[in-house]
Amino acid sequence: MKVPEAALYTCPKCRQCTVTAEPRYEPICPMYEEFGFTTHSGAGILKIGRGFAEGDLGLEEALVPLAKCTLCRACDRCPIGGHPSRLVQEMRREAHRTGVPMPPEQRTLLENLRRSGNPYGAPAETMEVTGAPADAVLLGGCVTAHFPEARGAADGLDRLLGAARVPFATLSLCCGALAWQLGDTETFEERADALLKAVQRHGGKTLVVPQAHCYRALSRETRRFKDAGVEVLHSTQYIFRLHQEGRLKFRSDTVGVGGGPVDGQCSPAAPRGQHGSAPSPRRQVTYHDPCELARGCGVTEEPRQLLEAAGYTLVEMPRNREDLWCCGAGSGVLQTDPGYALHTAEKRIQEARGTGAATLCSACPQCEVSLQRAGGLPVADVMELLAERV
């Protein structure tokens, strides 16, 4: 396993895997918050790994509590370098390698993906391609295709790329990122290869991905795209680039946060810091960081800079950036344990309402599905909000 063996034996029980840093010490691990057992925490995952490594715990038994992990990566702040989320994925991969059965709900998702081309058991997907030749290829993805409430990201991107006069193609194709999360790397590589070939057929040099865990998987967990000279960017990164290059401008009838630019241009992605003065309730929004985007890839400032450049007043939730609170949907949990996912999303909605913002926005369609199901506050994708300002 790609986890330092010493980490399995030296957990200091510091609780950094379950709460934010001082002085707040707020919950940060949705699995531990929901179930309350050490088994469902980063420390517990390391203990499970030790039991498996020593032969005291069978892999099938070990996978049962690990099925509740959303791979939010909060526990990867482990001060001894334990990387519990990596251990979760390593043990799932080992199960696939050795033929050990996965928990039934996860097994169903993978069977659906292999049979129908998506995790949801819907009729086999057909790939729809529009617009060719293309400078950029937009990955619609399976979440956008199968959840109407997730269409905002793709629709917003269509409008933004049109406004920037970028020739682009749209692919409706599952990239297999869920298979990667659940340890089935073979299926993931097969799906990634099919996606790459589709991108190449249309001459695309940039693949634009709205979904956070798809972006993480395609940009960090396979070399196919890099080796083929295809750049993989999250939608916020690509739109930020267009904005910086002056190819995309927002209506400039409002001043940005804190007296920000009036010409619709945002400054280079700034380090985390202050975001506010004299909030305007009409344009007040709060931003939910997707786990795989913020913790998994370090993308936190581009969405915020874009929102401010478009004239929105950004008010932060207490848990933001690397200290974010998960939406509850990751790693298939939205389908395998919807009640748990809902409870987790409801906590995020409560936190968002506490900011006084009129809208909660994110940069991941799966997050938006989970948060919308919780109700209580309008939820939108960053791309939707930006598209309203061009």
Order of helices and strands: HHHHHEEHHEHHEHHEHEHHEHHEHEH
Shape: globular
Largest sheet: 5 strands, mixed
Low-confidence stretches: 253-281
Termini, distance in Å?
49 Å
- What is the CATH first-level class name of the largest domain? Alpha Beta
Number of domains: 3
| Class inferred from helices and paired strands | alpha/beta
How many helical elements?
18
- The CATH topology of the largest domain corresponds to Rossmann fold
Give the helix proportion (percent range).
Answer: 40-55%
Strand content: 5-15%
Tell how many strands the DSSP assignment holds.
Answer: 9
Q: If you average the pLDDT, what whole number results?
A: 86
CATH architecture of the largest domain: 3-Layer(aba) Sandwich
Provide a brief overview of the structure.
With 390 residues, this protein is α/β, with parallel strands linked by helices. Helices cover 43% and strands 8% of the residues. It has 18 helices and nine strands.
Characterise this structure.
This protein is an alpha/beta fold and 390 residues long. It has three domains: 97 residues, no CATH class; 113 residues, 3-Layer(aba) Sandwich (Rossmann fold), CATH 3.40.50; 138 residues, Rossmann fold (3-Layer(aba) Sandwich), CATH 3.40.50. The chain contains 18 helices and nine strands. Strands 1-3-2-4-5 form a five-stranded mixed beta sheet, sandwiched between helices. The chain is globular. The relative contact order is 0.12.
